[in-house]
Amino acid sequence: MIIRSDETLDVEVSGSGPMRVHLFRPAVEGRFPGVLLFSEIYQVTAPIRRLATMLAGNGLLVAVPEVYHEYEPAGTVLAYDPAGTERGNALKVTKPVAAFDADAAAALTVLAGHPACTGKLGTFGVCLGGHLAYRAALDPRVSAGACFYPTDIHSGSLGEGRSDDSLARMAELKAELLLVWGRQDPHIPFAGREAIRARLEDVGAAYAWHEFNAQHAFLRDEGSRYDPALFLQAMQLTLDFYRRTLA
What we know:
Layout: E1 3-13, E2 17-26, E3 32-38, H1 46-56, E4 61-65, H2 82-92, H3 97-113, E5 117-126, H4 128-136, E6 142-148, E7 176-182, H5 190-203, E8 207-212, H6 228-245
Parallel strand pairs: 3-4, 3-5, 5-6, 6-7, 7-8
Antiparallel strand pairs: 1-2, 2-4
């Protein structure tokens, strides 16, 4: 499908002000399942926009929030360079976890109420966004969460104070998860992945688990770690997952 990618919404989040949300949707009349897509630490970069376009072009209404809206002016994109990486990583452990959760709740409400949305909701995320997509999937309105190499779940180190409750809250999970990892990813080592999988089993979660021989950020179509073949394979897994869970 041809898509529209020129729409933005400024969503009011209680306690933190407006959050810019970028919309990507098929350029045809109709209603589509909604997917809340969380970016990496760099916010809504060109690769993130292309990823959202890929999903929207397959019949989804995709909303991409600016995850650091309290700290950066609307529209800010951090560069894939040392300065951008330093800023993104610093904000990841400055922003309270409760603020990340409030953003997700507000964005899901707007997405569910959009006239082009069927009301069925999923999440998607990469890196930091993979963790946020998991936390957003704890919301009972969400049916499916696709989490790509989500950082910090195993270490409980997201947010202000580097202390989150993501593993502890896994028992609340009702949504089905798709979790995809790179085996050569230094940010989520084997022991960390095993800790997450053990917890999923402990709570009886519904999930699919895929590990590829890939680096961190292998979906990002910019830079040396991009793997085009695995990108296509991963997107097919994701689209099949959404067709089943959000139909």
